[in-house]
Design brief:
The protein has 13 helices and 28 strands. It is an alpha/beta fold. Strand 24 and strand 25 form a beta hairpin.
């Protein structure tokens, strides 16, 4: 069974590190120009260079979104930006604008191009068109169903990428003009004002509702059905979320990593109820499977709330000087809560009382009290919107940098010959030499002492999986020489892993009839 790529979002460097430490195979990021998420953190040019180097050390690919429509007057700036990305070893760019796609392909034939979901490619004919244009991968429209995806996969050789988790648009992918008509901010220019997340009234002779979020979609969640997409051979599984916090990126990426790996090994995801609960705590607008699996779509929208729902943890039993709550789930000092009833209010739990005493935590089925600083009423539902323990645990995992590249290590120590060390990561092999090995008449250096020094790789991306030693007896090597040898080997392997793409630029045209840029040309 083919292993699909797990593609994670990154709106800034912290999110990129979180995604990589959580186990993704690739990340997609946006720069400060031409991206469909202008209000995300985004990366400046120095940060893009840093991000690519960091990702490549871990064997993770980087795709940059340049997926807005481009005005004629912006073409030169657009092409300069593409040139910068290509020179700095980006693995692919994601494009919506058909003209720019053709221009980039002809100008930079070695640069991999992915067709953005904003192109609204949703059928076999559209994918074949993209193939004919020289596109390497199509990110299919989010409303494309699994039968269509399977048929495309069977009848083309192009890579297919599918959104599997995160925010959905109420409109067809890339086809919504509502934001532009209402506010002058175009989603196809990266500045969507998200009118679908606003309240609307529905009329049929008379008003049928009051202040409902009629167009606000739930979040896509396919984790329990991810095996169906793996079975039909989808090449890349994409998580939405370039405007989310690092903790969200880490948790969602790690859970889909778990589901994919389990399905490949056991033919089942082994995702638990607690895993789903953790997802809901970090962020949810309630979940839907969208249109992918041809199932009932009556649950597609959430009329109640357009933002984070949290999870229910109790209800208000009385309100006086204190607000008394019967808990149905745990609550900790520092958690965020919201009271839901005829009115809404919420905040951070700073003080919490149990039987009149201050406590820092309380458990399911216990009764707690809060200072009456909220607009809460009896029978209000209490939601947990932030779980401080969850966030702290995720932050700790990210900082541990537990993701490591396994390497084979071979060291050779022969008297009067230079130290020789080989590192091999399965793709790249490097060989470095050190000082001469000396003969010792007193102390015979132990293998364990040699391995101990070479194994000091804690601040690198590497971990030794297999170690071989060839040596003479009765040898002496300075510890400092072994350390220098290891450091040099790490530097050389890093250089190999931070690979260079094959940059090639041809003359390009930017005239409406025939385009060729020459020195001094002015558009």
């Amino acid at each position: 069974m083919k292993k699909p790529e797990l593609l994670a979002p990154a709106g800034n460097m912290e999110c990129l590190i979180a995604a990589i430490q959580a186990g993704c195979d690739a990340v997609y990021i946006g720069g400060t120009m031409f991206g469909a998420r202008s209000y995300a953190g985004n990366f400046n040019e120095e940060e893009i260079i840093e991000a690519i180097k960091y990702a490549h050390l871990y064997g993770v690919k980087v795709y940059v979104t340049v997926n807005t429509l481009v005005y004629d007057k912006e073409i030169r700036e657009f092409m300069n930006y593409i040139d910068f990305l290509h020179k700095n070893n980006v693995d692919a760019i994601i494009i919506q604008d058909l003209g720019m796609m053709d221009l980039v392909r002809k100008t930079y034939p070695n640069l991999e191009i992915h067709a953005s979901t904003q192109m609204h490619i949703h059928n076999l004919e559209g994918v074949k068109f993209a193939t004919d244009m020289g596109i390497k991968r199509v990110v299919l429209a989010r409303e494309t169903d699994i039968d269509t995806i399977s048929n495309i996969k069977k009848n083309t050789n192009i890579e297919l990428e599918i959104f599997i988790h995160g925010a959905l648009c109420i409109s067809y992918s890339g086809e919504c003009l509502m934001s532009y008509f209402l506010t002058g901010r175009s989603g196809n220019r990266g500045t969507c004002s998200q009118p679908c997340r606003m309240k609307y009234d529905l009329y049929s002779d008379h008003k049928l509702n009051k202040d409902k979020y009629l167009l606000s979609t739930k979040d896509l969640n396919t984790i329990l059905n991810i095996g169906k997409l793996i079975d039909i051979g989808v090449d890349s599984l994409k998580i939405e979320g370039r405007m989310k916090r690092p903790e969200y990126v880490y948790l969602i990426t790690s859970l889909y990593r778990k589901a994919i790996d389990n399905y490949l090994k056991y033919k089942e995801t082994r995702i638990t109820d607690n895993d789903i609960k953790e997802m809901k705590k970090i962020f949810n607008r309630e979940f839907t499977k969208g249109f992918i699996f041809n199932e009932n779509n009556n649950d597609f929208t959430n009329e109640f709330r357009p933002n984070h729902m949290g999870i229910k943890i109790g209800s208000v039993t009385s309100v006086d000087k204190k607000i008394k709550i019967k808990l149905t789930d745990n609550l900790n000092q520092g958690d965020g809560i919201r009271f839901i009833g005829k009115t809404e209010d919420g905040g951070i739990v700073n003080k919490m009382y149990k039987k009149g005493k201050l406590v820092s935590s309380a458990l399911q089925n216990e009764i707690i009290e809060l200072d009456n600083n909220y607009d809460a009423k009896v029978n209000d539902v209490v939601l947990k919107t932030t779980d401080i323990k969850q966030l702290n645990e995720i932050d700790s995992k990210i900082k541990l940098n537990l993701r490591k590249i396994k390497i084979y290590c071979f060291i050779e120590l022969y008297i009067d010959k230079p130290l020789k060390l080989i590192f091999n990561d399965g793709i790249n092999k490097i060989e470095v030499f050190g000082e001469l090995v000396q003969k010792s008449n007193k102390i015979n250096m132990k293998n364990e002492d040699i391995m101990k020094q070479i194994n000091k790789l804690g601040d690198t991306v590497y971990i030794i999986d297999e170690f071989d030693i060839k040596r003479d007896e009765n040898i002496f090597v300075r510890i400092s020489d072994l350390n220098d040898l290891r450091r040099n080997a790490v530097l050389e392997l890093n250089k190999k892993r931070i690979y260079k793409t094959n940059y090639l630029k041809k003359d390009y045209y930017i005239n409406t009839t025939e385009y060729i840029e020459k020195p001094g040309f002015s558009y």
